[in-house]
Every structure is written in structure tokens, then in C-alpha cells.
Description:
Number of helices: 8
Distance between the termini: 34 Å
Structural class: alpha/beta
Number of strands: 14
Helix content: 25-40%
Amino acid sequence: MSTAPSAGPVAPAPFPYKLIATDLDGTLLRSDETVSQRTRDALDAACAAGAAHIVVTGRSVAWTKHIFESLGYDGLAVCGQGAQVYHAGERRLLTSVTLDRQLAGLALSKIEAEIGPLALAASRDGMDGAVLIGPGYRVHEGELPYVPFTDIADVWAAPLTKLYIQHPGLSDDDLARVARRTVGNLVDVVMAGAGVVEILPLGLSKATGLSLAARRLKLKAADTIAFGDMPNDVPMFGWAAHGVAMANAHTELKAVAHEVTASNEDDGIAVVLENLLADTR
């Protein structure tokens, strides 16, 4: 009786994505600004299987460098809602987009004419760009450095990447909605977290910054899986082949996600990557 030749060892399937894009706050980072060992291991395994990892955050480079150093992260990063592409290993700013200060001032005046005075903060351009905090602006507790100002002229004295606005009576979602309706033809407006509504250059988003960074790696949208938790991640999900919202994500992001995973506190990124890695074995 003839016997069929035995099959040789089956080669593992390739990891399905060449690029893993992760937001920081509420996504990769836990509430104490650390990354769990499980998530580190899953990212390392995915990278060993052929993927590249890019951090994509709303934080400016100045507010992110210490995070990269604590994580030992040395790859490309997209910061400032897409305004800055930064090489963490080389500690070098590769690209930077600034906010037109004249347009920003006009946008502020139009919003205030609609809903009354705003509390204001501003992020200056550059690797060490200061964050200026105006009267009445509510600052999150933590170690992020900022410079108080009382004279609005100080805001316009140097190039900016973005403005932050708060309103005493409106929720973040309502403020973003009104601002977008009022000045959406002049600037972009995003809600990036609790108390964080931002005014950006028109057309700028995490997607535009991520596309620039991906191009440097010779990768594209079809190669990308993205993880996030806030409405400012919506454009990134629209650009990437697969968008994964955390369990703690804003409902606006969950509505456009391809998948919802566990929370940032419960290793949501690792859960997805481990499943993908299991499929390659």
C-alpha cells in the first residue's frame, strides 16, 4: 500500500499588519502613565513578526519626550495631533506644522461672539515648545510643565502648533460642536480628552501626521492597524485599514471602529495583538 509523502513543517503566516499605530493616553498608557509588561511583550512579539510600531498622540513633543524615555521608545512618533513627526531615538523633530496665528485669533473671536469668553491655553512650536496657560484654564493634575500668562499678546508672540479652549458652561462635546460649526471653515476643532478641546490648522489630523510617518517607513494605510480612545482618533481610524477602539473609548470613536477591545487598564492592545499573533502560528 502506497503512503502519501509527509508534509514538511508549515511556515507561519505573516503578521497581517506591517504598522501598528497606538495613541498614548487612554490607549497605550495606563492611568499611571505606564505600559504593562503584557502589552510591552505583545508589541515586541508583533514587531519581531515584522510589524513596526508608531506612537500617535495629541501631546506635543515637549509633553511626550519623557514618556518615550521612560518606555525606552526609539522609533518614529506623531505628536501634536499630527503637527509633529519626531524621531525619538535620534531626539530629532523631522516635520512641524504651525497654526496660522491670524486665523486662530479670528477663530477665537468668532467662537466668543457666539458663546461668550473662553479660557485659553496654547502650545508653542518646537521640541521644547512651552505650553502657555491662561486665566481660568483648568489644568490636569500631573507633572507636565506649563507657563502661566495673563496678557493675550504673549500667546501670539511665537509660532504655535495649537490652541486649547474651555468654556465655563458647556461640556467638551458641546464646545467642540459649536466651535466646529462656527469656525470649521477656518480651523479644525477636535475633542482629545476630558477638558481638552483643541484648535488646529485646517486639514491637520492624526491621519495626516501618520501618513507622513508611514511614508518614511515605506508603508501605507492598507498596512496599518490603529488603536485609540477619543474623537481625535477618528481620522486615524478612517485612514488605517483597521481601527480598534478601547473599551473606555468615547462613543464617537466606537461608532467608527472596526473592533472594540478591552480598556487601557486591562491590556486592550495586547488582547488584539495576541489574537493576531496566534493566527500566525
